[in-house]
Amino acid sequence: MMHFLTSSFQSLATQTGPSFWLPESVSNFAPTVDGDFYFVYWVSIFFLVLITALLIIFMWKFSAPEGQKATSQNDHNLILEIAWTGIPVILSLMMFWYGYKGYVAMATPPSNAMVITAEAAKWSWNFSYPASGTVVSGASEDFNEIRNALRTGDLTAEQAAEREAKVLEKAGLHVPVNTPVQVNVLAADVLHSLFIPAFRVKKDCVPGRIGQLWFEATEPGVYSLYCSEYCGQGHSAMHSKVVVHPSQEDFDKWLAVAASYDEALPFPELGEIVWKRKGCVSCHSLDGANKTGPTWKGLFGSERKYTENGTLGSAIADESYIEESIRYPMKKISDGYTGQMPVVKLTDKEILWVTEFIKSLR
Amino acid sequence: MFLLGGVFALLVRTELFSPIPLITPLFAGSDAGAQADLYNQWFTTHGAIMVFLVIIPGVPAALGNFVLPLLLGAKDVAFPRLNLGSFYLWVSGAAFFVYVLFSGGVDTGWTFYTPYSTSSPTAVIPAVVGVFILGFSSIFTGLNFIVTIHKMRPKGMTWFNMPLFLWATYSTAVIQVLATPVLGITLLLLILERTLGIGIFDPQNGGDPVLYQHFFWFYSHPAVYIMIIPAMGVISEIIAVHSHKRIFGYRYIAYSSVAIAIFSFIVWGHHMFTSGQSTMMNIIFSGITFSVGIPSAIKVFNWIATMYKGSINLNTSMLYGIAFIFLFTIGGLTGLFLGVLSIDTHLHDTYFVVAHFHYVMMGSALIAFVGGLHHWWPKMTGRMFNEFWGRIACMLVFIGFNLTFIPQFVMGSLGMPRRYYTYEDKFQIYHQLSTIGSYVMAAGFFLTAFYLIQSLVSGKKAPMNPWGGNSLEWHTPSPPPLENFHGVPSATDPYELDQFDYDPVTGNYSSQSSKGLA
Ligand SMILES: [Cu+2]
Ligand SMILES: [Cu+2]
Question: Which residues of B, range 362-401, sit inside 8 Å of A by Cβ?
Answer without folding.
Answer: none
